[in-house]
Amino acid sequence: MFFPEEYDILISDAEYKDIADLVYKWSGINLGVNKKALVKTRLLKRIRYYNFKSFEEYYAYLRDESHKEELVEFINAISTNVTSFFREEKHFKILAESVLPDIVQRKDKEESNKIRIWSCACATGEEVYSILITLAEYLKDLSAWDIKVLGTDISLKVLAYAKEGVYDIDKVKNMPPLLLSKYFDEGWQGNNRFYRVKDSLREKAVFARLNLMDKVFPFSSRPDVIFCRNVMIYFDNKTKRDLVKKIYDCLDKKGYLFTGHAENLLGMDAGFKNIAPAVYKKIGGN
Ligand SMILES: C[S@@+](CC[C@H](N)C(=O)[O-])C[C@H]1O[C@@H](n2cnc3c(N)ncnc32)[C@H](O)[C@@H]1O
Questions:
Q1: What is the mean pLDDT of the chain?
Q2: How confident is the model at residue 1 (pLDDT cuts 50, 70, 90)?
Q3: Which ligand 1 atom sits nearest the alpha carbon of residue 28?
Q4: Domain endpoint, select from 47, 78, 109
Q5: pTM more than 0.90
Q6: Same domain for 52 and 101?
Q7: Which of 150, 213, 219, 270 is deepest in the core (most CB within 10 A)?
């Protein structure tokens, strides 16, 4: 008697190329030539789920128009969703000490109390809640403001997690205890302790699916700040350039862009001024 997981299914170079091309077409993620082992590990679950005998069979299934819903699972399986609260911590210091004071000053002049921030590859939501905690700490009384932080991602799986706002103890272990007790409710499920973002913060977060490869980003209010961190590393130069142009176009005219520290706009002439490592301010435009 065999358990199906014991069957190894090999992936040929040609199968890998077909799959990598499909990933690129649907998500812009450029796998390159070295990710064969990773792709194999990540897709085996899908292949076993359908009882397919080869990657070729799975690829044919994906190409069939009537199986479009599997494309979502396919991209979910491939994408890397690693994130954490206050990742690249200095960014949140800059947000609090430079970016927010500038935005508040401008909003005062415009007699507006509206702040919109977009985390455009938010994974399981830690980035969105870290932004909201920073806003709450800096602005003190959030009720005086009309604030929304939008978190989007290509993966529905991570978005469902983000919406719940429930994290196990491992995910919050580096959070200062004061912030943890102020912004999270503690709960137990059996022997497992978990932390849920308080409703007062969660109600200011909005989550939706958005593919960064979409031609335009449909905003009714332009974001004052965009966090586009640790996603451009998966894109090739052309995809990255196109994305930065779309971000520039939809950002408020004096808005800010945060990128991952391994990503930069060097040599891009994209209409941004670099004000701190991986932090940019829009110049020109409207
Ligand atoms: C490594 S996580 C980054 C999370 C967070 N921004 C951070 O810095 O911690 C990358 C996220 O990008 C998402 N992603 C990849 N391609 C995308 C696309 N074309 N459109 C939207 N999201 C995408 C993945 O699903 C994943 O959740």
A1: 93
A2: very low
A3: 19
A4: 78
A5: yes
A6: no
A7: 150
